[in-house]
Write a structure and sequence with these properties.
The chain is an alpha/beta fold. It has a single domain, classed as 3-Layer(aba) Sandwich (Rossmann fold), CATH 3.40.50.970. The chain contains ten helices and seven strands. The strands form two sheets. The chain has a five-stranded parallel β-sheet, sandwiched between helices. Strands 4-5 form a two-stranded antiparallel sheet. Helix 3 runs parallel beside helix 4. The chain is globular.
């Protein structure tokens, strides 16, 4: 098991990966990727029960599904740094014929990727199908999924949320990245959603909140609690309160970096704030 400092070191390197990937091709989504770096690092290094190697059946292990696929830079970085494919392949992000497309897809057969995501609102439906398959197969492992808060404005989510509780799908932990920002502004400006916690609870879910969503220890503690709440007849939702652009001061607390790459000068500033810890690709 990694200690807190080791997880933080990985997170710092992942932030460097994110910045360098989107800068090289002048394209991608650094804001949400940076905001979820701590979550992905702890998920893949401590929280999930994973097997060596990768197969699409995923029998005998926990599974993860990314719904807000535009934060692929953090996903690819953590998958590579977790041994799913060579770290050097991060050099190919968003290039023609690369396996690392802007939104993850499955036809490139990139290890770690289980669904094509990018059309927002679909991830929970897929995750629920996998959760029910686990039950049918007599497998007691868990399904984890991640969703953006702005993504909840898509109606399909709420059909899936209703379905999960109605069918007692209690082997799933759906995490909502609650950063309050989306591509056109704050979520409250674009389309206010009121109390997300209240909505999930009204739909029959067990809900817990991680107030410090960019703190490794807080994530570890919160996700351990979430895991303890599974298997009790209700699906579990985690509200992860993060800061968009976390770790790069000029990208934080604004939607401006949702889908914009840094220029040369901005890249240098961002990298200076995140020391190389594991070695750049």
């Amino acid at each position: 098991m990694a200690n807190t400092q080791q997880l933080e070191d990985i997170t710092t390197q992942v932030r460097r990966d994110i910045l360098r990937m989107v800068h090289k091709v002048n394209s991608g989504h650094p804001g949400g990727s940076l905001g979820c770096a701590e979550f992905f690092v702890t998920l893949y290094n401590e929280i999930m029960d994973r097997k060596e190697g990768f197969d699409m059946d995923g029998i005998g292990e926990d599974l993860f599904f990314l719904s807000n696929g535009h934060i692929s830079p953090v996903y690819y970085s953590v998958l590579a740094r977790s041994g799913y494919f060579p770290v050097e392949e991060l050099n190919t992000f968003r290039l023609i014929n690369s396996r690392l497309q802007g939104h993850p897809t499955t036809h490139e057969n990139l290890p770690g990727i289980r669904i094509a995501s990018g059309s927002l609102g679909q991830g929970l439906s897929v995750a629920l199908g996998a959760a029910q398959a686990k039950k049918l197969n007599g497998c007691n492992h868990l399904i984890y999924s991640l969703h953006g808060d702005g993504e909840l404005q898509e109606g399909q989510n709420w059909e899936a949320i209703m379905y999960a509780a109605g069918n007692k799908v209690d082997n799933i932990i759906a995490t909502i990245d609650l950063n309050g920002q989306q591509i056109d502004g704050s979520t409250d400006t674009v389309l206010p959603m009121g109390s997300i916690k209240g909505k999930f609870e009204a739909f029959g879910w067990t809900v817990l909140e991680i107030e410090k969503g960019n703190n490794v220890d807080a994530i570890l503690k919160g996700m351990a609690e979430a895991k303890s709440l599974t298997g009790k007849g209700k699906p579990v939702c985690v509200l992860l309160k993060t800061v968009m652009g976390n770790g790069v001061d000029f990208m934080m607390h604004t939607h401006a970096w949702h889908g914009k790459a840094p220029n040369d000068e901005q890249l240098a500033i961002g990298l200076a704030q995140n020391a190389e810890t594991l070695g750049d690709y």
